[in-house]
């Protein structure tokens, strides 16, 4: 099994390289950073434009530029932005911001999504099931920026009625905040609540639908009846034998949901002014910055492929039938 | 609790007088879109301690629903009224937590499908231990329960139990899983065991093992047993009393011998008459019960069996007949107003059924009078081989083994003849069939159809020759495209082979009539037909091109017994009328004995015995044939109790690694009884097929006749 997972990992490294190369080529071929420079008013001197071209290796063919950039990446240097700041410095901070936002949102989303799905399935065609279904469909059909804006307005309303700024929805911390680590934590939490809710609500809606149908499949199964025939109460049989089996098909969803959301959360980051990876991708494209675009793409590829790998591991952990020797 | 002699039942069960289970006037109904389904309508029965009650009926008769009601396992939408008293205590109205203390402790259950009855994600040992722990929390340690689970697995005959307890359900074969479920059922020494079709999904040899095990379980626990089945053979030797159910009610009940010898309700008669008998040599008239069981949403007044009954009179439609005493016996009851007249017929059991239902023996085809050697060979197989490679690796596949699915089989089928091909699942029956239908050059050996060697065919000839050969599949639900009308289904082969529109329009209604369906129904879709009717449609499609050979892959095994007889009769009539030859693949040897002229027994990709059907069944030479035949229950309680069963041990070995020499030796009782020097012959030499009698060959070094019926 370990060997199998290791081989998978090697395959993924190749895939990540291919994805990044394609993104790099596409960005290099379409971006025109010099054109932007030349249109400045007053136009910069020809010498500095030439220098910029050299800095950006625009005199080299694209594959060679990629090799140059990649050899830096291998040593931990992701190159410089168009504004000549090292990408590596910003990368760590931005990954941290994104993970903080999404790890919490997804964890809450999975937990409550599964719970809601299970309740829905067990109480199929009862009021609570219809309610959960309605809740999910409304949320799934609401674009994130609408949901985010609505939640902002709600938070503002709560703040106004309390009379103090409890729920903060701009940025990830108060700039220039002074205090000990505990107060810092409190400040960050205040910033975290509304954006996390934005992410979690959509995730709950999404996972609950899948969990409901996978649980319904299990509800009619013979082994659940066997468990009850042994003397387990219905509730115990449902959780110990039913839910445990119904979670297996969810493993892939959980894993890939995580991988895609880390960058799919661009809207959420922009709405709440969080400078994470999604925000960076938009910034990079609008600045016609190949290095940022390629860096974020590499990060996405790694996230997605790691998720795939995680799905394999989860599957093997949950389902003894596919554990191979 | 340190010794291995763990006695769990320290406090003795309170001794309760009277029956273990007493069901009175039970009604169960479910909501449905068409209205309330009255699944059980006024059912009363009892089970005494240590007694075996058999409940027999077709699907939808309410037999399973009534047992689930006893267990309290019906969905909450079910409405249950009446009384279910277990050891004198009323069960109806008790909550889930109260019932869960009785379930698995005092009443336990064995389900139909062992493949899905175990939770796939926990080990078998853990699941058995759970049955103990859930009732004795605190009193029994986890380690003690695990140890007890191993003892139980050992008791139900799982070899190497300590090791196997750590296996997951998917690593167990169907028979082993059913053993594990039985181990769970007896774990807490229950007073009542309900077995719901415990052997239906299993091979005959495994079925015999499981029935034997249930008998052992009853001896060990002294429990009363309710065994539910649709197969009258299974319960004949096992049950003490029998209850026949139809449309949610008991229509006949009594002692097993009385019901088999003097059935007093036409439905029971029909059921008995519809089963082909393994022990009847001469041609037997099979009773088909026409029509369908009634819908349980809106029953008309009167006897629910009346629309299908050959003895129906006007009075039958006025009121539903109650269960009345018959033959002056206070044990035997039947729900029919004409039981007196049934009692007046001289014949007994199945013969009375044939008389009352007017069933006749289907005539032999004309061609059968010509000696076999003078008829043309329709299909010939000569040392046909089919192997599958077992590969490993994702990018670079390498061959790590070979599955010898078909290891050189030889047989032929002549004009107007039926060859039955039988064996356990995994023996290579289906692979053989696919090789024949594929019309491709086999990996080894030769296949010839109507005298033409298939390896010499070009694609045009191959297409032409397909006309002469057609197939009917096992599952009538899956083998018809649900989006085509019946007309399109039957016309399709003719369109493919370029028949003119006029010819097709003439032929389709003709085919419908031929298989006993009305041409007016041609514009309907398969979903509107019952299983038996769909199988008739499948047969009509197979006959469209006027083939010489029809390959039948388990054509009746998915059908209810009463329907099955009608389809078998139809197949026989068609054969006689059209002079067809059949290759009939089946696992049910009784059906094969009834319909086939010759039979070939397969084991692990080889034919071990082949010959004229009566010769093989009456004087089987190969130990495997003997074991197979002895495993088939006979619907006759007296004969059944006297029979000595040959129980095969274990399951079929893997065809990827077949035993050396004789492939059957690992499970062979004869081999086990031989002195070592003779055993060496079995291990080292593969037995050749040798002539034992006229048209009867067997492949065994030590072949000898053994009567098993």
From TrEMBL, chain A:
The keyword Chaperone does not apply. InterPro entries: BPD_transp_1_N, MetI-like, MetI-like_sf. Pfam families: BPD_transp_1, BPD_transp_1_N. GO terms for biological process: transmembrane transport. The chain crosses the membrane at residues 99-119, 131-151, 189-207, 246-272, 292-318. Residues 95-311 form the ABC transmembrane type-1 domain. Its main location: membrane. It is found in: Cell membrane. PANTHER family: DIPEPTIDE TRANSPORT SYSTEM PERMEASE PROTEIN DPPB-RELATED. This is ABC transporter permease.
From TrEMBL, chain B:
Residues 21-272, 390-629 form the ABC transporter domain. GO terms for biological process: peptide transport; transmembrane transport. GO terms for molecular function: ATP binding; ATP hydrolysis activity. It comes from the Bacteria. The keyword tRNA processing does not apply. Keywords: ATP-binding, Nucleotide-binding, Transport. Gene3D superfamilies: P-loop containing nucleotide triphosphate hydrolases. Belongs to the ABC transporter superfamily. NCBIfam families: oligo_HPY (TIGR01727), PRK10419.1 (NF007739), PRK11308.1 (NF008453). This is ABC transporter ATP-binding protein.
């Amino acid at each position: 099994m370990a060997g199998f997972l290791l081989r998978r990992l090697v395959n993924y490294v190749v895939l990540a390289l291919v994805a990044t190369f394609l993104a790099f080529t596409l960005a290099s071929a379409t971006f025109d950073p010099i054109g932007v420079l030349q249109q400045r008013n007053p136009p910069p001197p020809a010498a500095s434009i030439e220098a910029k071209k050299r800095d950006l290796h625009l005199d080299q063919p694209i594959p060679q530029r990629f090799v140059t950039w990649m050899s830096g990446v291998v040593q931990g240097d992701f190159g410089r932005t168009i504004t000549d700041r090292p990408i590596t410095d910003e990368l760590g901070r931005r990954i941290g911001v994104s993970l903080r936002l999404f790890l919490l949102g997804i964890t809450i989303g999975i937990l409550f999504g599964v719970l809601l799905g299970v309740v829905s399935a067990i109480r199929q065609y009862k009021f609570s099931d219809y309610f959960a279904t309605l809740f999910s469909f409304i949320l799934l059909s609401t674009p994130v920026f609408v949901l985010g804006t609505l939640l902002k307005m709600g938070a503002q309303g709560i703040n106004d009625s309390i009379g103090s700024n409890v729920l903060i929805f701009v940025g990830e911390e108060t700039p220039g905040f002074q205090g000990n680590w505990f107060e810092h934590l409190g400040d960050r939490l205040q910033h975290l609540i509304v954006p996390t809710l934005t992410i979690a609500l959509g995730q709950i809606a999404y996972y609950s639908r899948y969990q409901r149908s996978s649980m319904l499949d299990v509800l009619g199964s013979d082994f659940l009846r066997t468990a009850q025939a042994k003397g387990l109460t219905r509730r115990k049989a449902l959780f110990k034998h039913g839910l445990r089996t119904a979670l297996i098909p969810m493993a892939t969803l959980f894993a890939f949901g995580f991988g895609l959301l880390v960058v799919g959360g661009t809207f959420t980051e922009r709405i709440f002014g969080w400078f994470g990876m999604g925000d960076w991708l938009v910034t990079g494209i609008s600045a016609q910055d190949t290095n940022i675009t390629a860096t974020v793409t590499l990060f996405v590829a790694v996230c997605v492929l790691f998720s795939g790998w995680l799905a394999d591991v989860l599957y093997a952990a949950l389902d003894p039938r596919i554990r191979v020797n | 609790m340190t010794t291995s002699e763990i006695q769990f039942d320290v406090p003795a069960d309170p001794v309760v007088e009277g029956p273990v289970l007493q069901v009175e006037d039970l009604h169960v109904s479910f909501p449905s879109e068409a209205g309330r389904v009255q699944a059980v309508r006024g059912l009363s029965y009892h089970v005494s301690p240590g007694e075996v009650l058999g409940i027999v009926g077709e699907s939808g008769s309410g037999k399973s629903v009534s047992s689930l009601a006893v267990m309290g396992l019906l969905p909450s939408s079910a409405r249950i009224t009446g009384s279910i008293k277990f050891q004198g205590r009323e069960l109806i109205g008790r909550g889930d937590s109260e019932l869960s203390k009785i379930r698995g402790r005092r009443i336990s259950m064995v389900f139909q499908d062992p493949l899905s009855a175990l939770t796939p994600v926990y080990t078998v040992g853990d699941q058995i231990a759970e049955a103990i722990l859930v009732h004795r929390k605190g009193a029994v340690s986890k380690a003690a329960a695990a140890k007890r689970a191993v003892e139980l697995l050992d008791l139900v005959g799982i070899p190497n139990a300590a090791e196997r307890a750590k296996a997951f359900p998917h690593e167990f074969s169907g028979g082993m899983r059913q053993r594990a479920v039985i181990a769970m059922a007896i774990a807490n020494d229950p007073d009542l065991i309900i077995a719901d079709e415990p052997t239906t999904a299993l091979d005959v040899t495994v079925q015999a093992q499981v029935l034997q095990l249930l008998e052992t379980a009853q001896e060990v626990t002294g429990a009363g047993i309710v065994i539910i089945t649709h197969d009258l053979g299974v319960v004949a030797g096992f049950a003490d009393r029998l209850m026949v159910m139809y449309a949610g009610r008991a229509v006949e009940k009594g002692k097993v011998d009385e019901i088999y010898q003097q059935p007093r309700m036409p439905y029971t008669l029909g059921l008995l008459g519809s089963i082909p008998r393994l022990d009847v040599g001469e041609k037997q008239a099979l009773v088909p019960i026409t029509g369908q069981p009634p819908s349980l949403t809106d029953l008309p007044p009167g006897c629910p069996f009346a629309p299908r009954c050959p003895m129906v009179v006007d009075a039958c439609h006025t009121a539903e007949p109650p269960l009345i005493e018959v033959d002056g016996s206070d044990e035997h009851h039947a729900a029919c107003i004409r039981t007196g007249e049934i009692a007046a017929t001289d014949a007994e059991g199945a013969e009375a059924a044939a008389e009352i239902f007017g069933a006749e023996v289907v005539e032999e085809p004309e061609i059968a009078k010509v000696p076999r050697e003078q008829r043309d060979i329709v299909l010939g197989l000569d040392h046909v081989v089919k192997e599958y490679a077992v590969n490993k690796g994702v990018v670079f596949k390498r061959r790590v083994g070979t599955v010898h699915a078909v290891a050189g089989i030889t047989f032929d089928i002549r004009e107007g003849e039926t060859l039955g091909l039988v064996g356990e699942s995994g023996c290579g029956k289906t692979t053989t069939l696919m090789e024949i239908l594929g019309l491709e050059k086999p990996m080894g050996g030769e296949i010839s159809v109507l005298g033409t060697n298939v390896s010499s065919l070009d694609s045009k000839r191959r297409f032409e020759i397909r006309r002469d050969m057609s197939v009917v599949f096992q599952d009538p639900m899956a083998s018809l495209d649900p989006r085509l009308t019946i007309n399109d289904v039957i016309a399709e082969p003719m369109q493919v082979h370029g028949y003119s529109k006029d010819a097709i329009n003439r032929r389709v209604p003709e085919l419908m009539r031929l298989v006993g369906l009305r041409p007016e129904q041609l514009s309907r879709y398969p979903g509107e037909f019952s299983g038996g009717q769909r199988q008739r449609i499948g047969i009509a499609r197979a006959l469209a091109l006027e083939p010489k050979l029809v390959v039948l892959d388990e054509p009746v095994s998915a059908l209810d017994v009463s329907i099955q007889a009608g389809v078998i009769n139809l197949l026989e009539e068609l054969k006689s009328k059209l002079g067809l030859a059949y290759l009939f693949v089946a696992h049910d040897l009784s059906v094969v004995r009834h319909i086939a002229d010759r039979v070939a027994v397969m084991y692990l990709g080889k034919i071990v015995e082949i010959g004229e059907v009566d010769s093989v069944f009456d004087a089987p030479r190969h130990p495997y044939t003997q074991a197979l035949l002895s495993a088939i229950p006979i619907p006759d309680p007296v004969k059944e109790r006297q029979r000595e069963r040959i129980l095969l041990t274990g399951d079929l070995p893997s065809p990827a690694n077949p035993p050396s020499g004789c492939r059957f030796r690992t499970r062979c009782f004869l081999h086990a009884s031989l002195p070592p020097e003779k055993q060496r012959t079995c291990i080292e030499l593969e037995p050749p097929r040798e002539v034992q009698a006229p048209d009867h060959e067997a492949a065994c070094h030590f072949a000898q006749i053994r009567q098993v019926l």
